[in-house]
Write a structure and sequence with these properties.
6 helices; 181 residues; mainly alpha; 81% helix
Length: 181
């Protein structure tokens, strides 16, 4: 496996979670029975896997390797990606706050949860496409071939906290099952 294949695999798991989130949002908007806990489960995935592992891999390993190879961190595609990561974190916190309000009995928060969920899905779909189609090919071209083995090792090392792809893959599978996807 190559380093960027690992990140692309992350994206596939994230896209599965986004599909479950989108389906739950549609069900919520139709007035179907959806638990606030489902959205909180998605938030757990987003905070733990997307922000806690995947973004750490990009911001802590891939982007610095690209910088060493000549990419500008604060501008261009890397700067845009980092800003999108921050918007993703902000939107996730907002979705958690609204889901907590709803879980606490504020039924009006259902619409706010749906709004934050739609915003998040839209943001991340565009973000993943940009990384897959622009940033990752750019990294493949910029980073010397001999550095890719160390890059892969560094990316894998970040998964050492016990809540890696296996844990989060099971969480996504449970979310998919709950929404019937």
């Amino acid at each position: 496996m190559k380093a960027l294949d690992l990140l692309r695999d992350d994206h596939q798991l994230i896209e599965r979670a986004l599909a479950a989130l989108a389906m739950a949002t549609v069900q919520l908007e139709r007035g179907e029975a959806v638990r606030p806990g489902l959205f909180l489960g998605v938030v757990e995935f987003l905070e733990g896997f997307v922000h806690g592992l995947h973004y750490r891999r990009e911001e802590g390993v891939l982007f610095p390797a690209m910088e060493r190879a000549g990419a500008a961190r604060g501008a261009g595609p890397l700067g845009a990606a980092i800003r999108e990561h921050e918007v993703s974190r902000i939107t996730t916190r907002a979705m958690r706050a609204q889901a907590d309000r709803w879980k606490g009995g504020d039924d009006a928060a259902r619409e706010d949860v749906a709004n934050e969920a739609r915003r998040y899905v839209s943001l991340l779909k565009q973000h993943i496409a940009r990384e897959d189609q622009l940033i990752f090919p750019m990294a493949e071209d910029m980073i010397p071939e001999e550095d890719h083995f160390q890059l892969l090792d560094d990316l894998v090392q970040l998964e050492g906290d016990g809540r890696g792809k296996e844990f989060f893959g099971a969480l996504v599978a449970a979310l998919e099952e709950e929404v019937g996807h």
